[in-house]
Design brief:
By secondary structure, the chain is of the alpha/beta class. The chain has an 8-stranded mixed sheet with strand order 14-13-10-8-9-16-17-27, with helices on both faces. It has a 7-stranded mixed sheet with strand order 7-6-19-18-20-21-22, with helices on both faces. Bound molecules: 5'-O-[(S)-ethoxy(hydroxy)phosphoryl]adenosine (WTA). The site of 5'-O-[(S)-ethoxy(hydroxy)phosphoryl]adenosine has 23 residues, from α11, β22, β28 and β29.
Amino acid sequence: MATKWVIKDKKKAIYWPSEKMKKKANMSDASIYKKALNNPKKFWSEKALEALDWSKKWNKVYESKPPFFKWFLGGKLNASYNCIDRHVENGNGDKEAIIWIPEPTNEKPVVLTYKDLLEKVSRFANVLKSFGVKKGDRVGIYLPMVSEVQIALLACARIGAVHGVVFSAFSAESLNDRLNDANAKVLITANGYYRKGKLLDLKKKADQGAKGSPVKKVIVIKRGEVKTKMSKGRDYWFHELMEKADPECKPAEMNSESPLFILYTSGTTGKPKGVIHDTGGYLTYAYWTSKWIFDLHDDDVFWCTADVGWITGHTYACYGPLACGATQVIYEGAPNYPDWSRFWKIVEENQVSVFYTAPTAIRMFAKQGVEFVKKHNLNSLRVLGSVGEPIDKDAWMWYFNHIGNKRCPIVDTWWQTETGGIQISALPGIGPFIPTVAGRPFPGTNFVILDESRKEVKKNEGGYLIQKPPFAPGMLRGVWGNPKRYEKTYFSDYGNKLYFTSDGAKYFDKNNIRVTGRVDDTMKVAGHRLTTGELEDAIATYEHVSECAVVPEPDKIRGQVPVAFVVLKGVKESEKITEDIIKQVIEEIGPTAKPKQIIFVNELPKTRSGKIMRRILKKLVINEPIGNTMTLQNPESIADLKKKTNYKRK
Ligand code: WTA
């Protein structure tokens, strides 16, 4: 019988850590919350010293000039040194850092020890240097989950270059926008990647994206035998450059507040924004959240299934676990290749002990049935995590019962691209673990739930999730090239001293928070963050579209899916136009953004000032009463809208 890491509250669906779990956990003392909040600056100052090797200690721990703030001012360190060198120096060079699993089952895993990682990262850092990349320069990364992903990120960090990863399923247009915004001179990509048994071409998209951008050099990782066109003088094969490069490269001494990376995310307007993360604060935060929330020990094997294109892939498939000196599994491909038992096969074969995935994936697995899970022995698991969107009770229970076999705690981790690391979650050694309740603000972070009039809400009343200063060290430091947007997005609704998360939330009890979802125009499609604005921009560029509005529709598996209301000009609706519009969205953003439905209507409902009333459209797609239409400029539009959304009632 495998160890039970949790026990159930006899009366309620609430779980607590077992004595064994408490004993093993890196953090099991609940007084830490109070201690940390009494003096967060002191707490983080001690934690930063404990977690990382600094070449120079800071002279000021926190500084705030609202809405801007800084941590560890004057401190110096290098992120790649902290993720690699120091583990080698401490005698852990032969420990497995990364076990990379290719999608094709006839290929062997690639194992990189910390020593291997040191050599490869150093070589690649020298390659980047030879291309003229200097401290502070931006490097674009357009990579699927190939085995070189962490090498690319850490090589940038080693020389103080700022990486900007673009999700490989994003379109050439999205890549181009981001390369331009970041002014990246070098791009790292791959010629292809495996997905559901097929070798897909990536280089072609990368070429289109690099065209008309500031990119002068493209480094191409060879993943498979795809026919690849290389531009002379611009494109270079990664493996050829690596062979010739010097295997030693001294890590650059960076200021704690130097940017480590930019990651673009969807905001309330159409144009994605480049969220900036710094070096020392981010890494301190990534370290402690990995250590306490995933409870990483020396003998753990951690698997975070997120793609590097998202913040979760940055913090929990690279910086956090590596800073902790942990062993991680990275998987290249699809969860259902060659069948739906692939994930569980990987867990069993690699004795994964901590597993972190998204509710969408859990719902997909649940739909396929437990027989795929039952084929494998999952007794190595001891902590399960969820991220990306609220997890519903059914998915939570399925995860708990069938993956954790009623033995493992589930940490439902709430955070954002902007927060850099998990901010609300239970800790495995403290608990409780409650379905649909994310849990408690991480020690040293401070949250309140306020209503519109800035009054704190009572238990079970809905409100807005707000972070209070001092802001956690892992928080964003700005929006690339656009400080005004930073202030407007996060620090205007509740003043410049409170961070507005754009999420709705409730107090479940005095300690624990239930996050209910976005209150802005953001939707989470299979855990991927998209805004109605960027979708509408993509649709509106189609020549026959006069106007459009996109709203989310709840979906059993994907959480939400986009539905588009479109007013055409000069042409009649047809299947061809529907197809063209969908194609347009895929080309401009990527397949993640594919609308589920295009609904052609005569008019969109508008306020007297001409604003589209998305609230009404949202109600129509969920088949709920639309409420008051008195303030509409065109109440007559409603009859047509109701008729067209009738498909919902069938
Ligand atoms: C949502 C992902 C409820 C939330 C790390 C947030 C969640 C947005 C949870 C950020 C959770 C993430 N429970 N909602 N455990 N985790 N969210 O930037 O709406 O891709 O604001 O970062 O995801 O999405 P992002």
